[in-house]
Structure formats: C-alpha cells, structure tokens
C-alpha cells in the first residue's frame, strides 16, 4: 500500500464544511489534479457488553470496525491502543453473532466520503466527515503512490500538501515514526482515520449545517 497521510482540515472562517471542501478541491483542480471517482471510509464503534465485564470495576474496551472503499474485500477491526485485525468482509456478520460480547454504539457511526483526485504520483481524497445527519469535519488523505516506505517520502508528501493545504499541512503522522523503514500497510491508513474520527467525535462541537 502506498504510504500516506490522513489529516483533518478546519472549516474556513465564515464557511460551511461543504464550502471549505469546495475551496480545497478547487485548489487541487487549479494545480491540475484530475477527478478519479469517489471514496468512502466508515467506522462503527463497539463496546464490550456489560455482561462480559467482571465485577472488579474494569472498564469496557472499545473496538472500531472500519471499511474503506479502496479495499472493498476487507474489513478492519481496530482497538484504540492496540492491534489492527484485517479480515474479509464476512467479519460484519461475525460481529452480529458476537453481540453478547460486543455491542454496537449505533449513534457513534461516523464516515468520510468524497472525491478522489490524481495528481502526478499523488492520490488525494478530500472527504466530508459525517455523524448521523450532520457534517462534522473534513478529512484529507494524500498517498504517494510509488513509495511503500513511509519515512522515504514524508518530505515529498509534505511539500505537495503545502501546495493546497497551506498552513493546515499536518505534521508527520505518529505511524510513520513507529514504522521506521518497514512497509506501510492499509492498516496504517485505517489507524490514521480512526485517530481522526475519534478527534472529531471528542470535539463535540455544535453540529454545523447538514449536507445539502
């Protein structure tokens, strides 16, 4: 999987989420990026069912079950501080069967969807992050397609992101520093989306106008 960065872009002052997304995509189009279809990343939260937690006052664990349209045959299960399990799409059926152990916090479903852009060797996905009916934020994922070693291409990625994200260009993702010279995988991207979604959930800001 190409190494990439997933970051949140704040809503421009006086603009809605949709207008900010349009500003970003316009900048990409001015650079010469071309639309290449759409994408969607979604995330459902499961918490350990009360019946499985002992009486020692343990807290339930959260597990995030995620999908990414770039990997239609896979399902990703991530724990907040731990491993990422990559399973096939039947994993969703298994989660239904495990409802005695894991319960779906349906109100917490969050997703990002938007347009994919190709620019030279970069793939850019600008997404509107929604929870329920309301738009909560903006995600930007940038992949440098020729490179699978994260640290080898960070400077290139950053330089390109600055060209259309300006001062909102993110710092190096934590996954890059833990990977060092190992191969970047789809699970690394999903971990970045999980962090971004959790950050947006915690912001609990007043919902901005829903998507028209």
From TrEMBL:
The reply on keyword Nucleus is yes
Keywords for the protein's UniProt record, in alphabetical order: Activator, Nucleus, Transcription, Transcription regulation
Give the gene that encodes this protein. Answer: Med20
Q: Name it.
A: Mediator of RNA polymerase II transcription subunit 20
One annotated GO molecular function: transcription coactivator activity
Xref: PANTHER family: MEDIATOR OF RNA POLYMERASE II TRANSCRIPTION SUBUNIT 20 (PTHR12465:SF0), UBIQUITIN SPECIFIC PROTEASE HOMOLOG 49 (PTHR12465)
Q: Name one Pfam family in it.
A: Med20
The cellular location(s) given in this protein's UniProt record come to: Nucleus
């Amino acid at each position: 999987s190409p190494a990439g960065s997933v970051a949140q872009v704040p809503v421009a002052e006086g603009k809605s989420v949709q207008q900010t997304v349009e500003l970003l995509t316009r900048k990409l189009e001015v650079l010469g990026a071309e639309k290449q279809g759409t994408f969607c990343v979604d995330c459902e939260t499961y918490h350990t069912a009360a019946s499985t937690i002992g009486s020692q006052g343990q807290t339930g664990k959260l597990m995030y079950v995620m999908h990414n349209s770039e990997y239609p045959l896979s399902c990703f299960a991530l724990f907040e501080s731990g491993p990422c399990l990559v399973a096939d799409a039947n994993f969703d059926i298994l989660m239904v069967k495990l409802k005695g152990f894991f319960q779906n916090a349906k109100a917490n479903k969050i997703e990002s969807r938007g347009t994919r852009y190709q620019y030279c060797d970069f793939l850019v996905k600008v997404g509107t992050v929604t929870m329920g009916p309301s738009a909560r934020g903006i995600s930007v994922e940038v992949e440098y397609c020729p490179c699978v070693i994260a640290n080898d291409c960070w400077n290139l990625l950053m330089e390109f992101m600055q060209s259309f994200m300006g001062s909102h260009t993110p710092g190096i993702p934590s996954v890059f520093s833990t990977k060092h010279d190992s191969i970047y995988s789809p699970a690394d991207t999903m971990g970045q989306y999980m962090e971004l979604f959790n950050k947006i959930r915690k912001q609990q800001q007043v919902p901005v106008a829903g998507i028209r």
